[in-house]
Amino acid sequence: MGALAVELPISRPAVSRHLRLLKEAGLVDEETRGTRRIYRLHDRGLAAVQRYLEEVWGDAAARFRLLAENTAARRPTDADA
Prior knowledge:
- By secondary structure, this protein is α+β, with helices and mostly antiparallel strands.
- It is built from three helices and two strands, in the order ααββα.
- It has a two-stranded antiparallel sheet with strand order 1-2.
- β1 (about 30-35) and β2 (about 35-40) form a beta hairpin.
């Protein structure tokens, strides 16, 4: 965690808390090596997050795209002026 904490703009306790939450959510795996803890992204956890985001935001993104396309189709062009 130390190497990771150095690169982030938050405190070491905050990094530790976030890693614990990510581990509990199944997004990272933790391996203890002596006094160090090695964290790795958990593939199945990431796939679950991706599915969730696609489910939630996929519909919203599709609706936004349709709105944008319909708005652009109704906008007058320079040739219409």
